[in-house]
Amino acid sequence: MRRLSALALAVGLTAALAAPARAASLPPLTLAPQAVAINSLYNGTDLTVTGDVPAGSQVVVRLAGEPETFRMKQKARVLGVLWMNTEKVAFAGAPSVFLVAASPEAAAAVVSGLGVPGLARTITVESNDPDKAALLAEFLKFQQAEQLYLENAGQVTLGPDAGDTRPFTAVLRLPSRLSPGAYAVEVLALDNGAVAARGQATMTASFVGAPAFLADMAFGHGALYGILASIIAILGGLVIGQLFSGSKSGAH
Fold first, then answer.
1. Per-residue exposure over 199-238, b if at least 16 CB sit within 10 Å of its own CB, e if not
2. Which residue from 21, 55, 83, 130 lies 20 to 30 Å from 2 (Cα-Cα)?
3. Where are the domains of the chain?
């Protein structure tokens, strides 16, 4: 089910971000790693995508997480003095992560249309504020500041034409805040600024080790997780209290 939803997301993004529905299909892509293990030491990693595109093409590579609804609070000035949270805002259909990388000679305007600004056509803003475009612009800016939406998320290297094809290698830097789930990886081959061919693959991410244990406890055994968290917090407080009281005694 996750694989299908990730591939469906890739198709939806392609349609929404100006890639033609009848673009030719690329040969199968190779991902390394195809599955990312998120352990307690995970701090981001590189995803390498290799494959072939038509000779003479430029390349755009996109990685998108499954669509989510981000719920946030809108700040406004109250009584002309204080900034406070006033209304709730929801951004529906926004990918959890969206990374883009392009070959050096790809036209900047084309890459921008296929990148983060193009998400404005796929995300729905739910708010009483009539200026939804401004809210969406702030949301995209926030996601970029969080390193979750990036247009320069890696490098794409093109090899020389070999007959009718051209090999490429793309290296995307995955964020440290990667969540478990399926991620759609899409490669777009550009010919004179237009998408002539595309290919898709799926990468998965999952918790392992201590993060997997904690996630299982939190979502599968909520009551026990809450009790253990409380006990750990109390013990931590006692240890810190002893350390500080010992340092004060030593000072005298």
1. bbbbbbbebeeebbeeeeeeeeeeeebeeeeeeeeeeeee
2. 21
3. 2-207, 221-251
